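Ligand-bound model needed. protoporphyrin IX containing FE.
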Amino acid sequence: MSSPCVSSSHLKNKSDYKLSSPPLLSDLPLREIPGSYGLPFFGAIKDRWDYFYVQGEDQFFRSRMEKYNSTVFRVNMPPGPWISHDSRVIVLLDGNSFPVLFDTFKVEKRDVLTGTYMPSTSFTGGYRVCAYLDPSEPAHASLKSLLLSFLTSKHEEIVPLYKSCLKGMFDELEDQLRGKGRAEFGPPNDVVSLEFVFRLFCDGKSPLDTKLESKGPSMFKKWLICQLAPLKTLGLSKLLIPIDDFILHSIRLPFFLVKGDYKRLYDAFYSSATSYLDKAESFGISREEACHNLVFIAGFNAFGGFLRWFPLFIKWVASGGETLHRELAKEIRAAVRCEGGVTLNAINKMTLTKSVVYEALRIEPPVLYQYGLAKDDLMIHSHDAAFKIKKGEMIFGYQPFATKDPKIFHNPDKFIGNRFVGEKGEKLLKYVLWSNGRGIDDPTMDNKQCPGKNLVELLSRFFLVEFFLRYDTFSVEIGTLLSDTTVTFLSLKKATTSA
Ligand code: HEM
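Prediction:
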């Protein structure tokens, strides 16, 4: 392994990985990993059908966890034949064993971003982009350092930029509510998310002022769907399930379907992201490789992440009801009044607001899966047993179970807005794992933690600030589209007091 893996920060984290470890892990009884992969081919198809059509994600894992009386077991993960060459995994469902997936000494993160298959590199200009690289590959360190350094340089600009992107969104939602009695959150969220990401990386330029015009969001969405289809379902009626299964899970959607869109996206970034690409050259990365990486960061990591995250976030804040909304509005308006505006200082004072963001990220993490290949024979520990994993076996963590582990979180299935407030609450941050790392750790070039971690948490807090400066409370209707949550506002009650 090359040097990037052996930094002091990494070693520090490594010893910290024993989350809520029982006093002596070595005292835990050694247990054979339960579960079976079934017959070759047929076992993988059966598990895929259980997962998508018979049981659904949660029940798929829950029923097996109960059957084997274990939070660690063997199963096949979709898509399986003919897309994955090997769908066998060892599942981790508790908060104790899960963090082994963050330990890049123990697991290899090469080409596992999407799990047991990897989309063709045609979707990324022929390059294996940063998110598919293991930290032992030198390109990972240079690409990730470039991004981290760029984001640090933009720190002060992030809130004002997001504020200006959000400006029209609330007016548009209100117009729709007045006209139709309901307002879909998805379309304005698409526009705001791309506007923000593009302007962040492209020296303030709007995608509307490029050849993308207003088509950027739909181009990115088509490109995303082609790569992620094997993990989705259209939710069709029973009779049409075989078609859904064949098209999405048995064949790969070819790149030529989106070739023209990708070229226009690439060209728009290439001609607009001047300072990012200049900086890349100073990091020894060619403009071309940096730009294909940038399209992926902007479109897959950031835009794709925001499309999934913000609807989930609103759904959970809505579930807190008027009482939570009133408390948030009170905290936000008082801090803004006291600081004389929406400053970083004011945002940092809002402890409930911060906690609500963490609680939503805990209860329904936007990215559900994490994968890693055992680099060597290794031992993992759930709360009540030790398990041996062999070199080369695929380890898979289903995060919503790990972050709703009843041995770590009291009332884990309940959205408790103030769960992370105060000293006791902050101690729980290390169990919030949404960023592919612990809530108290930072992304570095040596780990695989999301470099957008702080940015996402800050924007989410800022979103609440803008929202509750404007409204007292709201209600929504929740739906699903292509396995993602959709939100439609049914009411937005204007603020009766001001900051
Ligand atoms: C809500 C939005 C976001 C979510 C949910 C999200 C989630 C994640 C997750 C779970 C990973 C780890 C994937 C894995 O290896 O298993 C990741 C990695 C990554 N994210 Fe994010 N992310 C978001 C926003 C962003 C933003 C805004 C950026 C850039 C500005 C970004 C850039 C990246 C990159 C480059 C990686 C790969 C890191 C590496 O290879 O070490 N993400 N993200």
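Residues 287-319 form the longest helix (33 residues).
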